[in-house]
Amino acid sequence: MDLRFLAAGSADAATGAMLVGLAVIIAVAFLFARLAKSIRQPMVMGEIVAGIALGPSLLGLLPGHLTEAVFPADTRPILQALSQFGLVLFMFGIGYELDFVHLRGSGRQVTLVSLGSVALPFAMGAGLAVLLFPWYDKSQLSTHGLLAPALFLGAAMSITAFPVLARIIAEGGMRRSRVGALALACAAVQDFLAWCVLAVIVVIATASGLWSLARMVLESGLFVVLLMYVLRPGLRRLLREERRWTADGSLVQVVLVCGLLLSAWATSEIGLHAVFGAFAFGAAVPRDRVDAAAPQAAGRIEQTSLLLLPVFFTVTGLSVDLGRLGTHGVIMTVAVIVVACAGKFIGASASARISGAPGREAAVLGVLLNARGLTELVILDVGLGLGVLDRRLFSAMVVMALVTTFMTGPLLDRLGPHEGTRLATLPLEGAEEPA
What we know:
73% helix
């Protein structure tokens, strides 16, 4: 009886501490988001900074061990679970909004710019990993070789924050401009390529031998085939307008949520991260039928993910300790920022020039595709869980993600109007959209 009483009391205490922690996260995220809006930055960037500020980098520096007091050790597994739930909902939205319609009529240029803005950052990132590898804390890595860390850093350098980019383009009045449409198309293609590469890296990092590697590849291929040739046609039939049950939007939403969660579970069981399953399910869902049957269903999932994403940012921030970077960490941070900016800008702008774009348009394209934002944090979370980078490099990469996104608006403002569009940095309502 006494043991049960103590266990119940401990559970109640953990629940209470978790609720207090969630209240702090939501309140601080809201304040930082408003602050970001006031300085003409995407509000989601304020939420990311809030998550880092609640960790050891800021709150932990104050007297009284406030980070441990607000987020006790027994509440962190709960926060981690909530953050992963929000993350898979968000990745479903990314896959759901994936649209290659911008490729029509400019496929050659989009292909060239996309490959250039992926290949150069990937090569430079992999090369940087080779140079920095002696400074890695090997005790935090799950692999003894250099292949997986080098491939991962290359993939992380190649990413563009498609949702944030869509907001910057929309609020900057560039949605109907040539450079805006080209940037969105290139971002969609290169993010798709980067996620495919990351899936390969996950297989390489987690496979214990040739048979394990072959099994994961076969199961991953089977999963994709089932999504595209069984689930997608099945959903198209189920969501026909003449079917009565499609009039119930809540039922469609339940189907989507259950589908994305089961897909996330499936890829997790295969050995990939759960985000891949949610992303793939979102991409496979017939969006035209869902929008016709229940246009509000995807929006409700998005709103839930936006509520939980600050929890993900905070869990990420608890792993970022800028105060312990040290000399090597500062050098790492500067190096990844320089390599990330140079790789993206040169790769995108040079490819655009080769494909016939004017100089200013090529420069604008290079600046736009350099924004990384939330998508970078998702990839870094996967890499940290895989053990292909240590916490010091993780912190450096988080700083890089913030810097490359914060600098996009001011650089566009410096470049001035292009093709009659308004490129000034504007207040960006909401979080990263479409999500």
